[in-house]
Design goal:
Helix content: 25-40%
Number of helices: 12
Radius of gyration: 21 Å
Number of strands: 21
Strand content: 15-25%
Distance between the termini: 32 Å
Length: 448
């Protein structure tokens, strides 16, 4: 595994070909959703161009925890996630690198009766979808995580769930897509859609125009900003999540775990990836104020779910000074911020190391090898938008709400088939864009 974690913002672009005059499909965004959309569209016979304003996988696609889980999913996502796990196995066999794909399971530890009850309420969804989730006793937890000092009341465990190394896996998928005929161009921001008679006729990029009848928007944290410039409102926000990677340590459990103090998973290099198990950071800006009513149910369910900051750093998607309107010949926010690279808090990273060592005293002092943060694109009901936009020819795949890495291959396949006019294969009504305007109650997914 030659790539560092996450993808370095200083890395030189690898994909720098000449902009084509035309394509059957343009994909905006070179994260896992965009790359997989391009891959499966190309395998369906389309001429595909994936355009990335910065670098492939440099934002959340290489900054996530690396979990590939069915456990805790919204019921509407679970059939798609089952397909994703199959596709992960296929893609792993096609790569030229070891991406760390390991079926070691996922465990959620319950410290309170309320949390234990929430896990038990989710179990029927697992049974309905053929997932082997089950509750663990305290004795079983002690065997699975030797030396754990916390005393959970029980746990939810899914042995069939996977993990992989994001900073290796997504670039490896890009190589598969390139071999399949996808043209990937980095450092090429799409400024706006080219619209003729109310229909998509192509895109205008900082490097010129591409004619195309179909466009998939998979821009992650930037998607709502792109849509707003075209008069399409979507209450997507982005929250900062922080991650640390330890130096190699003794094995204290192969199954990824989420506990009260932190979440952890074993890595292929012998260390663990650590992250706070809750309370991401929300930078309050114009979009946060606009979207606030849609998030009321989420706030009621988890009033301490976010730490609020009064303003985002300069040029972030919801920063107070970030432009909301521009023309095709303007320098856009996407060019001003090539890679969204939030900085982690040294205090929180140090606390992760202390908490992990306190949970497993046999480790001694835990040393941090690297730390980073990422901006997670999220929605009021914690499920994505996967839908045709009100602009003919535009398809939206965004707001994966921290679930995008695992489900990425299957969502890419779904979006590719939607762009080709084929059926998605699933009921996507839960993910429609119109739910935010038609009076649908915002019922958050289980997010257990």
């Amino acid at each position: 595994m030659s790539r560092g974690f996450p993808i370095s913002v200083a890395q030189a672009p690898r994909y720098q070909s000449v902009l084509p005059e035309a394509a059957d499909l343009v994909v905006i965004g070179g994260g896992i959703i965009g790359i997989c959309t391009g891959l499966y569209a190309a395998r369906g016979g389309a001429r595909v161009v994936v355009l990335e304003k910065g670098l492939v996988a440099a934002e959340q696609s290489s900054r996530n925890w690396g979990w590939i889980r069915q456990q805790g999913r919204d019921p509407a996502e679970m059939p798609i996630m089952a397909e994703a796990q199959r596709l992960w196995q296929e893609l792993s066999r096609e790569t030229n690198e070891e991406i760390g794909l390991t079926q070691a399971g996922v465990t959620y530890l319950a410290q309170t009766p309320a949390k234990l009850e929430s896990f038990e309420r989710w179990l029927p969804h697992a049974a309905a979808n053929g997932v082997n989730s089950r509750m663990l006793s305290q004795a079983e937890i002690a065997v699975m995580y030797p030396g754990l000092t916390d005393a959970p009341l029980g746990a939810l465990h899914t042995a069939s769930d996977y993990r992989a190394e994001p900073w290796v896996a997504v670039p490896a998928m890009a190589e598969i897509a390139e071999r399949a005929g996808v043209q990937i161009i980095e450092h090429c921001a799409v400024r706006c859609l080219d619209i003729t008679d109310g229909k998509v006729a192509g895109v205008v990029t900082e490097k010129g125009r591409i004619a195309a009848p179909r466009v998939v928007l998979a821009g992650g944290a930037w998607s709502a900003l792109f849509l707003r410039n075209h008069g399409v409102a979507m209450p997507q926000l982005s929250v900062r999540s922080q991650v640390a990677a330890t130096e190699p340590v003794a094995d204290v459990g192969q199954a990824a775990g989420s506990a009260k103090r932190l979440a952890f998973r074993r890595r292929s290099d012998g260390g663990y990836t650590l992250a706070p198990s809750g309370a991401p950071d929300l930078y309050v800006g114009p979009d946060a104020f606009r979207a606030f009513p849609k998030y009321l149910n989420q706030l009621k369910a988890d009033p301490l779910g976010c730490m609020l900051y009064p303003a985002a750093p300069k040029d972030y998607p919801d920063a107070w000074g970030t432009a909301r309107r521009w023309q095709a010949d303007d320098v856009t926010p996407f060019e001003r911020m090539r890679v969204l690279d939030p900085k982690p808090s040294p205090q929180r990273i140090a606390k992760l190391a202390r908490d992990f060592a306190a949970m497993f005293p046999q480790l001694g002092r835990v040393r941090i090898k690297a730390a980073w943060a990422g901006m997670i694109d999220t929605m009021p009901d914690i499920v994505p938008v996967v839908d045709y936009a009100p602009i003919d020819g535009l398809i939206i795949g965004t707001g994966m709400s921290g679930h995008g890495f695992g489900i990425g291959p299957a969502m890419g396949r779904v979006l590719a088939d939607m762009a080709a006019g084929r059926g998605a294969g699933y009921d996507l009504s839960r993910f429609r864009l119109g739910r935010f305007a038609d009076g649908t109650e915002m019922v958050p997914g289980p997010n257990v």
